[in-house]
Amino acid sequence: MIYIENIFVCLAIPLALCILFIGGRTRTFMLFMIAGMSVCLLSAYVNSFFMGYYGVSATVAVVEITPVCEEVMKLLPLLFYVLIFEPKARTLPEAAVALSVGFATFENACYLTENGAENLMFLLIRGLSAGALHILCGILIGFGLSYVFRRRWLAFTGTVGLLGACIVFHATYNLLISGEGAWRTAGYLFPSVLIALLFVGRLLLPKLKIMLA
Amino acid sequence: MNFELIDNCFQVAVLFCAALAAIAAALRHKDRRFLILALFFVCVSMGTLYWVLHIFIFGDVPQVFYVSECSWLAGYLFLLSFQMVRTDRVRPFFALPPLFCALFTAAAVLAMRMFGPSYFVSGAFAGVFAVIVYLAVWRLRRGSGGGLIDCWLLLCVGLQLLLFVVSCFMEDYTRFNLYFAVDITLTFSFAALLPLALREVAGE
Description:
Number of strands of chain B: 0
Largest sheet of chain B: none
Shape of chain B: globular
Mean pLDDT of chain B: 88
Radius of gyration of chain B: 17 Å
Radius of gyration of chain A: 18 Å
Helix content of chain B: over 70%
Oligomer: heterodimer
Low-confidence stretches of chain B: none
CATH architecture of chain B: Up-down Bundle
CATH class of chain B: Mainly Alpha
CATH topology of chain B: Rhopdopsin 7-helix transmembrane proteins
Shape of chain A: globular
Number of helices of chain A: 7
Largest interface: A-B, 37 and 37 residues
Number of helices of chain B: 7
């Protein structure tokens, strides 16, 4: 058993303190990082509830329940931000990425506490793939809501659609790393490869003078 | 390997290629309709991929949560978004014939519980299908251009419903049968939306 509330307090307090002395976009970024950590904590409770409710094993929960709960929980602070504060289009992707970073950081901290930090190579691979997965989901939601599905009803269908896309992407990753051998390797590789491709694309697109309307 | 896996892998491969082509079209034409189509292809193929991987890794279909169904529903929501973007420039209004078609579609999905025992999942699919059908029939009646895509969307919804009807009469999924014929046709129908959209954009 690990005391995730205690880990949360340890990690979130320095971040919360620094918010008092910074401003602007850095403050927004930091706030969303803390929100991401809080969402991770709450997701653990919700996952445990559904695991007990359905009476399933940890593996089934990881493959079928966790992706749904985590992605829905991650979307809620962003929806609150969009609906209440009506931010500019360019600030939403940053907020979504910060939320994902906070979520992934807290998840990794809990993983380290539970499993130890002896195997650096494995932690490097796991940190890279889980971080890449959450950040990719954040990018998809952030950019999707900001630039593709901006208006009225389109925002509704787009948001639910993007949520579904994130759920299946996350579930596929969890499914692959729950397998053995080549499946697990593929699971660890595919978010890292995708984020690398996305990064290369981000660098190349302006050079090719291609911009999406 | 039984035919169900072959069919699903085929669907994943075809729709993944279609998604890549749609992304290329989005970059070339700077039009978000292609990006939405790409998301549609990705969601449908990822839902199927998750299903296939679950069978490969655990030897059984998912039993607790509807992850694949979430993905397929997301795919149809993107198809609906695609239709909404196309309808953006003309003002929609109420009309009885499209409403009847939409209600008939929703009733068919709900009555036959085509998407599993969950009322929530069936209701969500019924709602999305009904709005897609409403917009397609409304646009066809209005004659606002792009009629071929509207007909094609109706065909896709019809094939999806037919797939579930056919599945009620099939028991053996290890070899080729009518179910797979409909599924493969549906896959090609999805993929054909991309050239049709390219034609529509080129004509504007």
